[in-house]
Structure formats: C-alpha cells, structure tokens
Amino acid sequence: MAPTDSVTSVAWSPKGTYISVGCSSGKVVVWDVAAVRVVKILEGHRARVGCIAWGSQLISSGARDRCILLQDVRAASPLVDKLVGHRNEVCGLKWSPDDQQLASGGNDNHLCVWQLGSGNPLHRFTDHQAAVKAIAWSPHKHGLLASGGGTADRCIRFWNTSNGAAISCMDTGSQVCNLAWSKNVNELVSTHGYSQNQIVVWKCPSMAKLATLTGHTMRVLYLAMSPDGQTIVTGAGDETLRF
C-alpha cells in the first residue's frame, strides 16, 4: 500500500490463511497472515473498494466504480469476471454457502443475485428504499437470502433465490447495517444505526425478537462472528468494540 492509500475494507479467506485489504486507490492487497507478506495485489477497480467477500475459489470485490470483480488469487492473471449491474457504489457482497451465487447490494437501493459463470444478474430486487449494505445467506435453507436497507428503508427482507420470489419483510425501525445467520441454530442477528443503534437477535422464520442489545451510542457499522458461532463482536461509530 502506498503511504497515501487508506484501508476501506478487510476480509479473511475461508480458512483464515489470508486476509485481503481493500484500498481507497481501488487495489485489493492479499496478505499471508503467518508469513506477514503480500502474496498478491489485485487491480482493476478505479475507485475505493468498500466490500470484499471470499468464496472457496474466488475473491469478489465491490467498489465505488459500480463494478464487482471476481479474481483467482492462485492464477498468474487473476481476473475471472467483471460484473456490471449496479448504478451506484457496491456496498455489500456475500457468497452463497454452495459458492454458486453471489449477492450484491448497492447505494442504488438494489439487491442483485449473480449465478457463477453468468455476466448478468439472475435476479434484481428493487423493493428496498435505501442502500443495501446488509446481506446474509441462510446456512440452514438452500437459496434463502436476507437483506437489510438503510435509514430511509429500515427493513429486513427475505428472498428465495431459486425462483426469485419475495418471502417476507420486517420493519425494524432503524437503519440496518449488518446481518449474520447463526450456524448452530436458525437465528439471525442484525445491527442497526439511526436511530436506535441496537443489535437484535431474531428467531427465524417467525422473526420474534429473542434479544435486543444496546450500549453503542452511534451506528453499529461492523459485525463479525466467532468461528464456533458462539460470540459476536460489533464495532460502531462511537469507536468502541463490544463482544
């Protein structure tokens, strides 16, 4: 990274061997964590890389240039595909558990689902009324996708990506910043911004609230789950981490 560059996103590889760093310059720098060395610098974006998602074979990155790049870190020429479908910055990316579909959310309020190998979206969902940053695939039911909208939307929506059907919608009352499904039980956790700054654990599919966690004083922008699925950590605009 150049001294003038800044970090705009980070993501671990599935096995935790590598960490990828998205930069304001549009580069994605892949580090070998144990060796503390750069193994690959992925180029191709013309603006900041706001989101990164690893599949088992490919790394996907979404940027302010409205493009999604699919790249193979192992290849001499890593670029596999360039997906163009959003009209504004790509702010959310998640691979399906079987690695066959990629979900992308944008500041254009659209949620796209891409089938691996196809350059056009398999589905384009336009029901959200604000940016779609929060995306999560169910590990319990094939083709079940959840998405959350920003301040003007506040909704968590559920989709069947096998047939493109909208399943249900839940108004949470606050901007939805992140979504993550528990691997162990059929529960979903959401983090929020304006105006509650809360973290909610939901029972699926009923969407009954199991817990509401408060304490952050600004929007909860970041969410990560421990490998065993027992603990979550959140980071907020109040510059605190909470476990």
TrEMBL record:
<dbReference type="GO" id="GO:1990757">
    <property type="term" value="F:ubiquitin ligase activator activity"/>
</dbReference>
<dbReference type="GO" id="GO:0010997">
    <property type="term" value="F:anaphase-promoting complex binding"/>
</dbReference>
<feature type="repeat" description="WD">
    <location>
        <begin position="83"/>
        <end position="124"/>
    </location>
</feature>
<feature type="repeat" description="WD">
    <location>
        <begin position="1"/>
        <end position="41"/>
    </location>
</feature>
<keyword id="KW-0132">Cell division</keyword>
<keyword id="KW-0853">WD repeat</keyword>
<dbReference type="GO" id="GO:0005680">
    <property type="term" value="C:anaphase-promoting complex"/>
</dbReference>
<dbReference type="InterPro" id="IPR033010">
    <property type="entry name" value="Cdc20/Fizzy"/>
</dbReference>
<dbReference type="InterPro" id="IPR001680">
    <property type="entry name" value="WD40_rpt"/>
</dbReference>
<dbReference type="InterPro" id="IPR015943">
    <property type="entry name" value="WD40/YVTN_repeat-like_dom_sf"/>
</dbReference>
<dbReference type="InterPro" id="IPR036322">
    <property type="entry name" value="WD40_repeat_dom_sf"/>
</dbReference>
<dbReference type="GO" id="GO:0031145">
    <property type="term" value="P:anaphase-promoting complex-dependent catabolic process"/>
</dbReference>
<dbReference type="InterPro" id="IPR056150">
    <property type="entry name" value="WD40_CDC20-Fz"/>
</dbReference>
<protein>
    <submittedName>
        <fullName>Signal peptidase I</fullName>
    </submittedName>
</protein>
<feature type="repeat" description="WD">
    <location>
        <begin position="213"/>
        <end position="243"/>
    </location>
</feature>
<feature type="domain" description="CDC20/Fizzy WD40">
    <location>
        <begin position="4"/>
        <end position="243"/>
    </location>
</feature>
<keyword id="KW-0131">Cell cycle</keyword>
<comment type="similarity">
    <text>Belongs to the WD repeat CDC20/Fizzy family.</text>
</comment>
<keyword id="KW-0498">Mitosis</keyword>
<dbReference type="GO" id="GO:1905786">
    <property type="term" value="P:positive regulation of anaphase-promoting complex-dependent catabolic process"/>
</dbReference>
<keyword id="KW-0677">Repeat</keyword>
<dbReference type="Pfam" id="PF24807">
    <property type="entry name" value="WD40_CDC20-Fz"/>
</dbReference>
